[in-house]
Amino acid sequence: MIKPLLSVIILNYNTKELLEDCLNSVELHSKEVPMEVIVSDNASTDGSPDMIKKKFPWVKLIEGPNEGFSKGNNRARPLVKGEMILFLNPDTLVHENVFALTVRYLKEHPKVGAVTCKLVLPDGSMDKDVRRRFPVPRISFNRLILGKTREYYYEDIPDTSTHEVEAIQGAFFLSWKKILDKVGWFDEGYFFDGEDVDLCYQIHKLGYKLIYYPDAYITHLKGVTKGKVAKWKFKVTPIQRKKIRLAGVASMERFFKKNLWGKYPVWFDYFVLFGINIFKIIRYVRVVLLSSY
């Protein structure tokens, strides 16, 4: 048996139908690169594990409790045999040459620590979250308070151009296992949201570049795991949706304390922390209190 070059890790939680479509698309193009596929299941109740065992016996399946995105992906670490790791969302469809082109790019550019392809939404537009700048105070203020997203989403650079970015999205995140091992994979202190940006920050600290590479693309349904897509909203309970939305603000605080604290005057650090907690209160009122009526 040929040793896989690439290990594809897909984290699943109650997305059986989407996961089946995703795995079918992966299998269709699996000959492009020697690979293995690992599905880490977060205690799904929709029959996902049985579906995998029945229809995709070649997939490695590992099951565990639903402890969030980071822990769920990291759970697959002991099973990995490949030199490269691709974190792939179950609400995606892989297209021709995605594996071949992105793997080749990573191999040919030793200074690149992680690469992503273009993510296209069902309506044909690009998923802007695929390329972002780090949420430093100025960038975050412009985006969240002033509504200025041009800098944050690299809107000044055509989405058809390959270029260096600060952060890529966890929906398609390709890196070397040796790099992930150095940074400790995903920080399990994040439950949902922010963990991909944090991982990018740690890779960047090692001196590697992160690249947006649009010569290859996948389709990304997006929002299913957060309960944002009407058709699949039943997959996520109201309590889970609230927990996910609140986790997003908690991630902001964790990222700042972990990576940016001490890079500014101490009074400014506390000012930013104060602002994040005000934002957290506002989100809590909107999500927990107002949605209860």
From TrEMBL:
Domain of life: Bacteria
InterPro entries assigned to the protein according to its UniProt record, in alphabetical order: Nucleotide-diphossugar_trans
Transmembrane feature ranges: none
Pfam family, one: Glyco_tranf_2_3
Protein name: Glycosyl transferase family 2
Organism: Candidatus Woesebacteria bacterium GW2011_GWB1_39_10
